[in-house]
Amino acid sequence: MAPAELRELKAQLQELLEKGFIRPSVSPWGAPVLFVKKKDVTLRLCIDYRQLNRITIKNRYPLPRIDDLFDQLKGAKVFSKIDLRSGYHQLRVRAEDIPKIAFRTRYGHYEFLVMPFGLTNAPVVFMDLMNRVFKPYLDQFMEKELYAKLSKCEFWLDEVTFLGHVVSIEGVKVDPSKIQAVVDWRPPKSPTEVRSFLGLAGYYRRFVKDFSIIASPLTKLLQKEVKFIWDDKCQESFETLKSLLTQAPILTLPIEGKEYVVYSDVSHNGLRCVLMQEGKVISYASRKLKPHELNYPTHDLELAAVVFALKIWRHYLYGEKCHIFTDHKSLKYLGTQKELNLRQRRWLELIKDYDCTIDYHPENLPGLPPEREIEFPIELIPGSTPISITPYRMAPAELRELKAQLQELLEKGFIRPSVSPWGAPVLFVKKKDVTLRLCIDYRQLNRITIKNRYPLPRIDDLFDQLKGAKVFSKIDLRSGYHQLRVRAEDIPKIAFRTRYGHYEFLVMPFGLTNAPVVFMDLMNRVFKPYLDQFMEKELYAKLSKCEFWLDEVTFLGHVVSIEGVKVDPSKIQAVVDWRPPKSPTEVRSFLGLAGYYRRFVKDFSIIASPLTKLLQKEVKFIWDDKCQESFETLKSLLTQAPILTLPIEGKEYVVYSDVSHNGLRCVLMQEGKVISYASRKLKPHELNYPTHDLELAAVVFALKIWRHYLYGEKCHIFTDHKSLKYLGTQKELNLRQRRWLELIKDYDCTIDYHPENLLGLPPEREIEFPIELIPGSTPISITPYRMAPAELRELKAQLQELLEKGFIRPSVSPWGAPVLFVKKKDVTLRLCIDYRQLNRITIKNRYPLPRIDDLFDQLKGAKVFSKIDLRSGYHQLRVRAEDIPKIAFRTRYGHYEFLVMPFGLTNAPVVFMDLMNRVFKPYLDQFMEKELYAKLSKCEFWLDEVTFLGHVVSIEGVKVDPSKIQAVVDWRPPKSPTEVRSFLGLAGYYRRFVKDFSIIASPLTKLLQKEVKFIWDDKCQESFETLKSLLTQAPILTLPIEGKEYVVYSDVSHNGLRCVLMQEGKVISYASRKLKPHELNYPTHDLELAAVVFALKIWRHYLYGEKCHIFTDHKSLKYLGTQKELNLRQRRWLELIKDYDCTIDYHPGFGEGFEELGASKGFVFKELDLGLLDSLPLACFKI
Questions:
Q1: Which of 273, 311, 940, 1040 is most enclosed, with most CB atoms within 10 A?
Q2: Which of 1067, 1070, 973 is nearest to 1025 (CA)?
Q3: Phi and psi at residue 407, in whole multiples of 5°?
Q4: Which Gene Ontology molecular function entries are recorded, alphabetically (predicted)?
Q5: Shortest CA distance to 460 belongs to which of 354, 558, 337?
């Protein structure tokens, strides 16, 4: 062992001896020890009992199946989780077996008296005890003296994480933190590594359709006498499994008494089936065909799939009603068939044990579809001649697949041999499930086909119709296009050539230019009356891809729910992973995909303008910094795209329109929620329009683009050009204005003034911004910073704008600060004045800024949130007249001074907060009286959750804002104390979410001490990575409820003090700190008392005057008030504790001494696997 491990070994052995869990041994047995790192970077002592386990008789007591555990939770809405403290150590080992579990170390030979980790039968023996204890009541915890670890228990949760799964009222899904291990797995280099990967991935096989079939190239590598060769098929299988697990669906939990539906199927790859209830998937199952089954006839294979489903889901289906769908028609009449072979008779007997009905549902279409009122026509441009192209070359594997698929299409009657003069080539495209889709390259035919102008529905219109829906269903037609015939005279035109012959389609194939609109025409005709026409028109749905009664539905790259519409994260990933384009074609592809979600991105057209310029004719392709910036900004904004609400018919719409030198932009809202964003660049001729006309153009743009929402509905339009409010009364209008006015009159809309920017000086208020200097200070004047040409142009424009508004004026002051630019999120430049020298000599204003914790605490119980953003807040406050010269600034274009409060001054936040407190104290209505303007486009009302100061607040509580945490995740290892300080500053902002923050961060904080040399070692790296990891998994913290009792759990270790504040079993906050040097000499009693005092001090604002229950793992603290002999420090702390209405109780930190466990449990450890999870002693309860 390393020196550090030896020190840790010595400490842990001492601790185990003191607890009475181990004793010195003279046993002839002796296993070695090793250390394994835990999540919190501490070391877990492990005994390597592998040799002992090999000769131990295995206990066959059944461990519960995880499926059974989850099934019992159906219908539960609230969950609790109890974690027994050092569970195994709460069970004695049978006396005669103690010598067998002895272990050897450098510091001696010891043996356990309690059950250690790593023994082969430990989980089942512990499970036996759990079953005996839990059978009657949970109260037996007390009777059996089983201690729970309160800090790891959770009560009254909406969802609970348990054994790698997340369980909620919706169902069961995979735990994302566990799946990350699969995602990060590197390609295996040996059968052992393949086995490890399949072991972890296979744990979630019920979530993956066709798991066994997809994994077959990997499972082949595990067969004996098969050489390990990692080929393309293995890599493909490996990547597909990783991809499918990250997109794993939520599986529903079964409801007893409800009918089950099974959909079974067979292919040349294997058997597969889906178990459903009420249209929701409960589980997927699949297996490869065994070698002898490859010779079975199709009938027997289809029957084998049914039997496979009944056997694997027997625990669900036996004794319950079940409807089985198969795509083999003869199985429907299985019971009436007279001649059956031995295998079929055996399977029929098994099927008769179940209350099941077998029905036919085709996986593939049975022959040509019936003749319908619509056939697919192909009208050619006059003068067109037949096109015939040589077949493309194919790889041997593709040729084999081509032969098989042609045979299948011929058998179905979808194609026939052709003698047509037409002939398109064929190619293959890989599908998601790694199979190959046969595609005909009809591009040449499409060029000479007359386009059908039948309108495809706009995706916005589809979503708008879903407003108010709480439950969604999705139906996927089976091989939709193949359910429509081609017009007889057009069949020769869609002929195609292959190495195996010349064929032509009789049904509509994929790839033809008018196929979508013709199919949509049919859908509209069919769906108009009723969905029942599916049966009448013989249109088959693919049950395995249909979904019913969903809380949210994924459709065409969007996720629709009762909340509204958001982008589908799996689709956005393609945008995020896009590499910088290297040609106009690649730019066009990127903008095509990103532009599909333009309604989610404010100012999309304006931000994308550097990219759209590259698509103009005669513009040379040069990828510069502006293009890269635009590219990255679009990607970033799409990953943070908001949820857009769906419009409610009859409710008033609100439009906020605006214009800048970049373009027109507007926002459509209803009830304070955004429905859509829209923007466009100014056209060249519009650059000459006067401001009035541009503002009017923005209003007209909004009315036109959202006509389908606004026409015939009440609408309130806000513009920042005051004269538009009186547009209808103006007498002199030019031709363009008159035309636009006529258009506006068609709408029931009111135009009101709402300033985008403040105009003129704000009114005089009771508060002005003062600048008090340290006595003896002299004026400071600094030379202007150098700027790039683009920055100088921007400076000139912004100075002119500030002068026009009256916010600045020319100055002759002896003071002068330099200016610089900082980029904003929307890639525009913010003008900043460098007031650092002035701030150093300014007397600080001690007006208190609110603590963020206090702000959040006031929101407890709120279900709906609103956020108001004051427009250019600081500029709404004047500077005191005599202090104006002090904030002068120098530029290349002159010397100016602010008349309103600028950014960057040391006291600006507290003066502004003082004004806010005075204004908000009585009512929010004073906004109008005080002429404080809010920025509507940045305000949000009636939200289920609100993002505020790097946190997300909802009815559930407070969590970290993922977009802010990304900065922590992307942080590179610091290379200096300054960089460490910056990292800890950002990470420390969220310290209340991280248990033991100070202790974990201690290697980093050491680097900030004076006279400590900066050395970035393994401990620092470990601390750095652990903090990043914990912040990405930060929990939701609850908000405190006034009047409810608080619970504090305090603890101390050789690292520091740590405590947890809870209420009703939910965590409000974590707190920790390192021990100070002098505290290292304190006795244990005083350290435990220090942890209690630390909790009372740090959470005084919660606990003072409230009932509080404090748990400590030091028993004597319970009797602190009755102790007679106390030192000075203890007396002082006792006086502090008496100020609180608190009760101190004992709750063991790591279990009690062996002698206190007692033999009263009536349980001994009879016969004694390294690597078994210590989470097995968990229990999950249905509330």
A1: 273
A2: 973
A3: -60, -40
A4: endonuclease activity; hydrolase activity; RNA-directed DNA polymerase activity
A5: 558
Residue 968 burial (CB count, 10 A): 17
Six-digit token string for 533: 């026409």
Nearest to 434 by CA among 608, 286, 244: 244
Domains of the chain: 3-170+1157-1168+1178-1182 (3.10.10.10), 171-249 (3.30.70), 252-361 (3.30.420.10), 396-465+487-527 (3.10.10.10), 576-642 (no CATH), 645-756 (3.30.420.10), 789-943 (3.10.10.10), 958-1156 (3.30.420.10)
Please report, for residues 27, 597, 869, the alpha-carbon distance to residue 678 in angstroms, rounded to integers and kept in the order given.
79, 11, 21
Contact predicate 159/175, CB 8 Å: no
pLDDT in tens, 10-57: 989 998 998 899 999 999 999 999 888 776 677 888 899 999 999 998
Half-sphere exposure of 613 (CA within 13 A, CB side): 17
Q: Count the alpha carbons within 13 Å of 925 in the hemisphere toward its beta carbon.
A: 2
Order the strands of the 888-891 sheet from edge to edge.
808-810, 894-898, 888-891
907 token code pair:
């006291």
The separation between CA 276 and the C-alpha centre of its own chain, rounded to angstroms, equals: 26
**Pairwise CA distance, residues 934 & 895, whole Å:** 31
- What confidence tens digit (pLDDT) does each residue in 882-902 have? 999 999 999 988 899 999 888
Distance in angstroms (rounded) separating the CA atoms of residues 174 and 268: 30
Residue 681 identity? K
Residue 495: enclosing H or E segment and its boundaries? strand 495-498
What are the two backbone dihedrals, phi and then psi, of residue 412, each rounded to the nearest 5 degrees?
A: -75, -15
Determine whether 557 is exposed, middle or buried from the number of CB atoms within 10 Å of its CB (0-12, 13-18, 19+): middle
pTM over 0.90: no
- Beta-strand relationship, 321-326 and 260-266: parallel
List residues bridging with 1077 in a β-sheet: none
Measured distance CA(891)–CA(782) in Å, rounded: 10
From residue 276, give the alpha-carbon distance in Å to each of 254, 331, 539, 579, 1135: 9, 20, 22, 41, 64
